[in-house]
Amino acid sequence: LFLPEFVNSYIQRIFIMIGLYAVLALSLDLIVGHLGEISLGHAAFYAIGAFTSVFLTVKCGMNYFPAALIGACVTAVFGVLVALLTMRMTGIYLAVTTMGFLEVVRAVILNWKPVTGGSQGISNIGKPELFGFTFNLTNGGYYYLILAYLLLTVLVTKLVLNSKMGRAFHAIREDPLAAQFMGIDLYRYKICDFAISAFFAGLAGSFYAHFLGYINNNTFTYSISVSILCMVILGGMG
């Protein structure tokens, strides 16, 4: 809780990135660890949240916090769309399709210049503000903000996994056919899982964009998806 008081901005930045990737890993773990599917396109959700939030703050003059919430909700909608489009896919087919979705998102970012800035991206992204308080490294604002996001992610995922929905996720992971025979709606729960996962990835993306101050299509690459997946696997799936 008092870390910013005892470390310099460089060390603080490392802890902020740890918190950011923890949020991303927890969100992907809902798909990989608890539903038993492989997604290689998580960076797409990360990017959608970032660009939606930045567009609302830079182009529309909206405050960061409602923009971040809207960005996360928009990302959740895309999570639902991906789930609907990949409803009957599992294993390597789902992995390749989600990887393709990431490349589509990157192509849109590169070519939709009025919204995303194209290859030049968007710069001079403002810092989050709340009741006159500006979040930055000097006052530890970014550290406490990502800490709050991390605690929110842990709390929500914990509540979801300890509920009927979480038990359904695990049943589908262990044996989809048996789960279906027991009356579990595979498609509905897959949609819910992708929506929640995408929501938190979008929230992380909105934070990262304002923390970095500049984003373009190369900010969100396939290697980021692989890195997050490695974190989930090495950290222990589920």
Q: State the end-to-end CA separation.
A: 27 Å
Strand content: under 5%
Biggest sheet: strands side by side, in what order? 1-2
Structure summary, number of beta strands:
2
Tell me what you see in this structure.
Strand 1 (129-130) and strand 2 form a beta hairpin. The mean pLDDT is 91. It contains ten helices and two strands. With 238 residues, the chain is an all-alpha fold. It has helices spanning 9-34, 42-59, 64-85, 91-111, 113-116, 141-161, 164-174, 176-181, 186-212, 222-235; strands spanning 129-130, 133-134. A two-stranded antiparallel sheet has the order 1-2. It starts with 8 loop residues before the first helix and ends with a helix. The radius of gyration is 18 Å and the shape is globular.
Topology overview:
Elements: H1 9-34, H2 42-59, H3 64-85, H4 91-111, H5 113-116, E1 129-130, E2 133-134, H6 141-161, H7 164-174, H8 176-181, H9 186-212, H10 222-235
What would the keywords be for this entry?
10 helices; single chain; 238 residues; mainly alpha; two-stranded antiparallel ribbon
